[in-house]
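From the pipeline queue, job 12 of 40. The input is one protein chain; the requested action is below.

Action: predict structure.
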Amino acid sequence: MSVDWDEIRRRLDAAAAALELKEAPSSADRESVLKARARSLASEPESSDEPCERLDIVEFRLASEAYALESSYIREIQPLKNCVPLPSVPPFVVGIVNMRGRILSVVDLKEFFDLPGKGPGESDKVIVIGDERMEFGILADAVIGARAIPLDSIEPPISTLSEIGAEYIRGIAEARLIILDARKILGDESIVVRQEEG
C-alpha cells in the first residue's frame, strides 16, 4: 500500500490555512478585548483577603535561640543592675531588683527551661512582664526589638520542644522564633516564690 504524500501535504496546508483564518480575530473583536482589558486594568484591585491580624511582640535571645513575648504583657525593659540574690530559692530565681520603688524577682528562663548558657552577665536585660495577677522580671541575653507578625504565620510548637517546656510555648514563627505564652508563665505557681518558702 503506497502513501500519497502530496495529498497529505495538501490536507495539512488546508488545515493550517483554516486555523489561521479562524484564529485571526476581527477588528471589532480586537477592540472589544482591548476595552475589556483597559477596564480591568483601570479598576482598583479587589482585596479578597481581609486585613491580616497581627501580633505585637518583643523579640529577645536566650542562649542561642530567638524568643518573643506578646508586647501587651511587657511593662518595661531595663539593664540588669543591682540584682540581690536570695537564699533558699529555686536555681532559676536570679534574685530581686528595685525598679523605681517596686521590688521584683528576676527569673532566668534558661535555667527554668534547662537551656545551655552562662549565668547572668553585665550585658543582660530584664524584661518586666505582668498582668492583673503577677509581675516579675525575665532575664534575657539580649533584646532584639519590637515588631508585629501575622497571626496566621504562627505554627503550633513542634514535639521536640517538649523537654524545654512546650506548655509555655504559644507557637513558632518564621526563622524558628519561639513565641512564649506570657499568660501561662505569669500564672504558673512553680515560678512564684512565696515568702514562707524562705
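Job complete. The chain has a mean pLDDT of 82.
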